[in-house]
Prior knowledge:
Two copies of one chain form a homodimer. Helices cover 40% and strands 21% of the residues of chain A. Chain A is built from 15 helices and 17 strands. Chain A has helices at 11-25, 30-46, 48-64, 69-75, 79-94, 132-144, 158-174, 188-194, 210-218, 242-254, 273-286, 295-300, 329-339, 352-361, 419-423; strands at residues 102-109, 112-120, 123-127, 148-152, 182-185, 203-206, 232-236, 263-269, 290-293, 305-306, 320-326, 344-348, 366-371, 388-390, 398-400, 406-417, 432-435. The radius of gyration of chain A is 25 Å and the shape is globular.
Amino acid sequence: MSGDFQKNCNVAEIAAEIKADSFLMASVSGSMRDEALRKISDALAGGKEAIFAANKEDIDAGIQNGLSEPLLKRLKFDQQKLNDCIDGIAGLISLPDPLFQKIFVRELDEGLTLEKVTCPIGVIGVIFESRPDALVQIAALCLKSGNCAILKGGSEAINTNRALFRLIHGAGLEAGIPKGFLTLIETRADTQELLGCHDSIDLLIPRGSNEFVRHIMNNSSIPVMGHSDGVCHIYADKAFDLEKAIPIIHDAKTQYVAACNAAETLLVHRDAAARLLPPLFERLDSSGVTVRGCPETLAIIPAAAPASSDDFAAEYLDFIISVKIVGGIDEAISHINRFGSHHTDCIITEDAEAAERFMLLVDSAGVYLNCSTRFADGFRYGFGAEVGISTGKLHARGPVGLAGLVTYKFKLYGSGQIVGDYASGKRSFKFRDIQPERHI
Amino acid sequence: MSGDFQKNCNVAEIAAEIKADSFLMASVSGSMRDEALRKISDALAGGKEAIFAANKEDIDAGIQNGLSEPLLKRLKFDQQKLNDCIDGIAGLISLPDPLFQKIFVRELDEGLTLEKVTCPIGVIGVIFESRPDALVQIAALCLKSGNCAILKGGSEAINTNRALFRLIHGAGLEAGIPKGFLTLIETRADTQELLGCHDSIDLLIPRGSNEFVRHIMNNSSIPVMGHSDGVCHIYADKAFDLEKAIPIIHDAKTQYVAACNAAETLLVHRDAAARLLPPLFERLDSSGVTVRGCPETLAIIPAAAPASSDDFAAEYLDFIISVKIVGGIDEAISHINRFGSHHTDCIITEDAEAAERFMLLVDSAGVYLNCSTRFADGFRYGFGAEVGISTGKLHARGPVGLAGLVTYKFKLYGSGQIVGDYASGKRSFKFRDIQPERHI
């Protein structure tokens, strides 16, 4: 564990120190956190030569090690990415403080007032891919939400990550933020040790392959937020509009095939198949997409490949789509709830009632009408940024921005009340909402 | 697994059927769920002779098996408990529907509107002690929040639980609720099998001893909500009011010692000790409470027993309290964050600034000023009922009522939008909040 400011310590000890700082973080004002974000933004702008130089080392090593073109593209940290990071921080500063928000205020009795108030989660460990801009986003989101972050980035980005960490950590300290607000760890051994620190770490957010996320879930008793799969569906209903359907399906499949929100399976209403499939196949085929169809699909599109049963649970992350013809909306919903990954699923229809049925009954973080599944993203939802996408149903679901990085506590302000008086009937509760609970 | 309506099936098959019903539950209207609660209330009132007869069998067996007096008291289901259950259901009916609530509505672009909307979690397994009234509360809370509940009650209450289950399940079906809304399981083997049903069960809520809750957490990959310990503290600050302090400490310790929200440790500011401890000791001693003190405490109260270091992490659930003198509020906060269980902790002070500091920095579900820790309870918070208390920080914290039994999904209403147009700059996001996010 390092970041060049902590040496000769083991991970558990450092995590315990960070935990102690996390209690202090809960009392840092929103204006101080925003001021720190401003200083961080300035430090990144001022330190760009150091960042770019470090990034060049990583890129050179990556080329030498035969890193693929898409991975090199993610690893690259240039002026454009720096601008995006700085814009992202400015966006975060402009968002309201997620802390100290009163979810409700209730007078239980005279002089006995209950408040449900937002507060930070505490210490969050984020393990992410070799994308240096992700380090900046995650650090900024955690700081804005009052959490301490322990970051482990991909090893290919080690020099860039160190340069970014130094600038961000230094600027945060200068603004008076407790030093434990940000820690960089670099080795797999440190990560492994981190998984055992359940007394100090409140939440783990692993990003990466399914296998990696499952490995983390199976090897730690710390709560994990993340997604294990992204098997997203599009269902073209009987009353679909061809002008919408073809661009949406094409975009959801091809706009970025490696993304978890790319569509993997198309379900088509039997009465819609003959009209939709031939022009769709032509469009997909011209973009190099392989169509793997059920027998009914093959009868309409003989040029398609036959789908095996495995195809309908596959996350291809590639230019392949499986196609199945279904008898109606309920069969589509059942298929999605059974084979999907509860990530993002879309219905294409002009029938408002069918749309509502689909959106109520499909058990996914995102249920869409007439638009691409690729919209499932924190930036596109207006969250400023995201730390990841959750396909779990507890705490946070879908893209996780600031709202997913806070929890709450109950504050009860009394003036000497004891429970014995209420148990004996001497006093009774009044339950008067001063500020009613509006949502969940 | 039974409830006399499902025979010759294994747990995994039944859980899968319940999962399928849970998707339908997500579309049952609030008025239908309330109507079902009314029918359940009527069925319980009308079926009371059958319930009392079944309860007599359990009580007789309990006496024969030498069950202790407190356990027999919890097992007893009489007219008073029935009235409480019926009042509880009436209270739940009067609460607003927790489902279909819009947390925010945001126009991302013209004709592209994002809604964050509450929905049920799905299938919830609750394992609880031999308290038949808990079955009624939990079933009612899960129904009101649109969840399917799989209940496993203590085996001593088997006859009462069956009688209650028959009435509740029958009344729910009569109101048109999908049959999977409630299932009763009875054997340990079924419970064990349930822990492996991670494809069908969304959440487990175990209630009972620490060991039991830990056993569940360690033997299932299903998310678990619960509390592992209840080591609650009271800190008497320098500026404490004796008239408040003594009744509060006495109530928090003695009003119901077996409760998780009973106080186990008292921390006292050094400057407050000489004034507080002698009269407090007298009061506690007269109620049969053993005081185990640190050396400084013993110097003031020589009649107290010496505390070992283990005492400050102990959940006694008995007429024992540990007492430690501290140098000030920050030492108290550090002690609580280190030795406490993040359940409920109280400061007694007349100093508003000290109170705010304590309530911000103590990392617990409940942070109290000048009132008994025993208030940490769903009924006393005005939730109508609770399924349990969570000391975890994710999803739900503290007493868990309706708000802790729902999650949300993102609904995105489009009219043909594709991500490619936004990536290329042909279109750009507008982010206009139609209904802003108010809380977390």
